[in-house]
Amino acid sequence: MDPDRRAARRRRATVLGPLVLAIVQTVGTFGTARAQPDRRAPDLLAVLVAVAGPAALTLVRRHPVPVLAWVAALTSLYLLRDYPYGPVLASMVVAVRLALGRGHRVAARVATAAVVAAHEPEVVALTGAALTNDEIARRLFLSRRPRRRA
Q1: N or C: which terminus of the chain has fewer CB atoms within 10 Å of its end residue's CB?
Q2: C-alpha to C-alpha distance for 37 and 89, rounded to whole angstroms
Q3: pTM for this model (two decimals)
Q4: DSSP character for 99?
Q5: Which residues of 77-114 are buried (b: 16+ CB within 10 A; e: fewer)?
Q6: How many Cβ atoms from other residues are within 10 Å of residue 65's Cβ?
Q7: Is 146 part of a structural domain of the chain?
Q8: pLDDT, tens digit (0-9, with 9 covering 90-100), for 47-90
Q9: Residue 5 above 90 pLDDT?
């Protein structure tokens, strides 16, 4: 493939992917709210968080760790405000996977642990320690396959 075409394709994906994710997260937030009446109803802040996470993903190629930290903070805010569970977690999953793909394993683990600790403080308080990497991954529905070493 021609390098110019590859660069154009990458630019489109950098904008189009987060745009689609922002729409899915925003619409999905209101859709999941109907099925979860015991949770706080989405308001302007919920919409801003649902849009800000994917918007930050447009910068992930140049600044993966700061974007991951920002998305983790937004996800924690969303969960702490007791908004309905739903696709708003997708931007966190994408940010973690992209950070892992760029070799930032420690940052991905710390950010994931921070979100889990913010969402489930009783788990961290009861155990007295942070969750293991596998427990964190299971909680955020990430699958980790062990890599084979040559």
Answers
A1: C
A2: 19
A3: 0.76
A4: H
A5: bbbeeebbebbbbbbbbbbbebbbeeebeebbbbbbbb
A6: 17
A7: no
A8: 999 999 999 999 988 899 999 999 999 999 999 898 988 888 89
A9: no
Q: Please state at what angle helix 3-35 crosses helix 90-101, rounded to 10 degrees.
A: 150
- Asked whether 57 and 71 are in contact (CB, 8 A), the reply is yes
User: 59, 67 in Cβ contact below 8 A?
Assistant: yes
Number of domains in the chain: 1
Q: Which residue segment(s) compose the domain that 16 sits in?
A: 3-139
Question: Would you state the structure tokens that stand for residue 21, as one six-digit string?
Answer: 């994710």
Cα gap 40→147, rounded to integer Å:
41
CB burial class (10 A; 0-12, 13-18, 19+) of residue 16? exposed
In a domain, 52, yes or no: yes
The 10 Å Cβ neighbour count of residue 46 is: 22
Residue reference for tokens 């950010």 = 111
